[in-house]
């Protein structure tokens, strides 16, 4: 059995610089967001919790990697985190730029849409983690009419 604690303080200099960039045009939101998690587990199965919050989730991995596939894998959680973070960040960016969002459709078109996408990816901390990790990162945003 093992226990580990993770916090955002373990960032590379480049990641710290990216994290300090303005997330919102509202000055009161220009701050770090303290996030801590605690994980306990045996083998490939881990239960993760957020201290002080009612959030818990379980992670496992695929049988080919020695897991039982009894819960989503860390890779699945990472991609879900990327998607959710883009949506949260996109909502903030849309509000800041006066862009109307529908059910994740937008009224922005052409150059305005491209700027929206660029700004979401610049501000989204999970997108930045992927980009700064050195992996090949590609995203495709499709603008559909409201």
TrEMBL record:
Domain of life: Eukaryota
Pfam entry (one): OsmC
Stated name of the protein: OsmC/Ohr family
Organism this protein belongs to: Apiosordaria backusii
